[in-house]
Amino acid sequence: MTLDALRLHDAFRAVDQQLSGRLVVATPAECGLGFLTGTISEFIQRHPKLELELNLSARHATDEPSRHDVALQLGPVDATPPTGALVRAVGTVQWRLYASERYLAKSAPLLVPSDLCAHNCIVEGRDPGLNVWQLQHNDLRASVQVRGTLATNSVSLRARFASEDFGIAALPAHMAAGLPAAGALVPVLCGWELPPMALSAVVSEKSSLRKGRVFVEWLESRLRRSATV
């Protein structure tokens, strides 16, 4: 265990069931909208006395850790943590393909990855490089160039469009599972997934480490649960 990990472990040793006061969490917009949408209410319900502030930004939230209690980042943080901060690997975000049952009922069969070419896929942008879905199933790999009539770099909008029967979207597994029943999505090509994305957290030593620890451990539990959905 590294020195930083030991310091973080010692700082987080004491656990309280209820949190109070203010907790500021920074996250890149795509990470915040994709990972926290539909799940943050659970954390707030567990800690009703806590004042939670979420700051979404287009830049890396870990660039200025002193301004936040916890900063999240998709992908690993630099080996050398920022001054006055401790780094923790939270887990991985599982990404899968989803569509509404209504869309699937009116569309062509979808049995193997190459069948995606006959479907309307809700893509990230118009750059062809963004729209090659790299899929994996155990030791099998498939690369599919997908197309669609809708493109957006917002994962929350991709989920919304998919729930409104526009097509197939690549989404975080926990996000799709957390949608209301009225807009429920079902997984397609079961067993096939996109490469998971690492989620890291930077916790400011100047903030309340206990609150930061509880929040980060809640994220870890959410990721473990989403991996089994």
What can be said about this structure in brief?
This protein has 229 residues and is an alpha/beta fold.
What does this structure look like?
- Helices cover 27% and strands 30% of the residues.
- With 229 residues, the protein is α/β, with parallel strands linked by helices.
- The strands form 2 sheets. Strands 1, 2, 3, 4, 5, 8, 9 and 10 form an 8-stranded mixed beta sheet that branches. A two-stranded antiparallel ribbon has the order 6-7.
- Residues 10-16 have low confidence and may be disordered.
Uncertain ranges: 10-16
Give me the count of strands. 10
Distance between the termini: 31 Å
Share in helix: 25-40%
Kindly provide the radius of gyration, computed on alpha-carbon positions and rounded to a whole number of angstroms: 19 Å
Quaternary state of this entry equals: single chain
The count of helical stretches stands at 7
Share of β-strand residues? 25-35%
Determine the structural class based on helices, strands and strand pairing: alpha/beta
Helix and strand string, N-terminal first? HEHHEEEHEEEHEHEEH
Basic shape: elongated
* Mean pLDDT across all amino acids: 79
Largest sheet, in brief, is: 8 strands, mixed
